[in-house]
Amino acid sequence: MKIIEIQGRKIGTGYAPFVVAEMSGNHNQSLERALDIVEAAARSGVHGLKLQTYTAGTMTLDIAEGDFFINDPDSLWKGNSLYKLYEQAFTPWEWHEPIFKRCQELGLVAFSTPFDDTAVDFLESLNVPCYKVASFENTDLPLIRKVASTGKPLIISTGMATVAELDETVRTARGAGCQDLILLKCTSTYPATPENTNILTIPHLKDLFDVQVGLSDHTMGIGVSVASVALGATFVEKHFTLNRNDGGVDAAFSMEPQEMQQLVIETQRAWQGLGKISYGVTEAEKKSIAFRRSLYVAQDIEAGELFTSENLRVIRPGLGLPPKYYEILLGKQAKVKLKRGTPLTWSAIA
């Protein structure tokens, strides 16, 4: 599997998971808050920070009824028109440069999700190192083609897409020049539940398209993200805010700083725990061999005396013969006098 490198950070199974904090609209239309989010993300230990680049006008039409109005009673955004929602959530384009600059100063990989050609052109002017395509755009082949033509690494969320649709998306990206592709398992509900996340798809996705894989996680907590690493995820993305109580369009399913820090720590531990296929005694376990069970003399035994269940026991430590010989040795004669507490060896058996 090809290793992908973004601004010096390598992404692949041989490296700790690449964790990304998604700011989205959690800046609440304050540049100061946006910069505070960047700093909090850096302190939490994440590797990247992602924006979304669009305007309300590039996303939808300014219509507040019918198909353009959110009536779903279960939606976090019910009662809004799509246009008004995107007006509230978008990140002003003039903020991108100072946000990216702060990220660079703090060692974060800063990039964005473009939603149309103009956003790609704008992000190219800022020389972003990679691009993300959102689940809702993963069938927008003209956009995929435009982003892929930059030749930069491309991360695509797979929410809602069928295998056939993903095949078309991947073929389009590769055909347009994308050499470095990461596919993210994603459930496009907000928030998502663990039951609907289906991360067993991750290794299948990896094998099916021969790409690096990861998770765009909308669940609460870190459990699903940590589990995804055990299934091969090398890239994990979570929405991020300073405090959910501050509100914001995505705040309800976003991670707070302390939670994000735990995510970074635990995904790294999960990755470290994978190791390799290994049986037998590891270097770290060598001192523990002594605490296995083995055969020991439990009572003083005279030369010529028979071994019995009273004078021979299977106990710790493990310096005597293995327990598998216990039944074989019962009734055998001792070759020499043996003191209680002596580990039994073949030389002591007649």
Q: What would you say the CATH architecture of the largest domain is?
A: Alpha-Beta Barrel
Helix-strand makeup class:
alpha/beta
- Tell me the span between the first and last alpha carbons: 59 Å
Overall tally of domains: 2
Q: What level of helicity do the residues show?
A: 25-40%
Rg (C-alpha, Å): 29 Å
How would a textbook summarize the main sheet? Answer: 8 strands, parallel
- Compute the number of helices: 11
> Which sequence of SSEs, written as H and E, runs from N to C?
EEEHEHHHEHEHEHEHEHEHEEH
Strand tally is 12
In terms of DSSP E residues, the strand content is 15-25%
Uncertain runs with pLDDT below 50, 5 residues or more?
none
Which homologous superfamily in CATH is the superfamily of the largest domain?
Aldolase class I
Give the strand order, joined by hyphens, for the main sheet. Answer: 5-4-3-10-9-8-7-6
Mean pLDDT equals: 96
Overall morphology: elongated
CATH topology grouping of the largest domain: TIM Barrel
CATH class of the largest domain: Alpha Beta
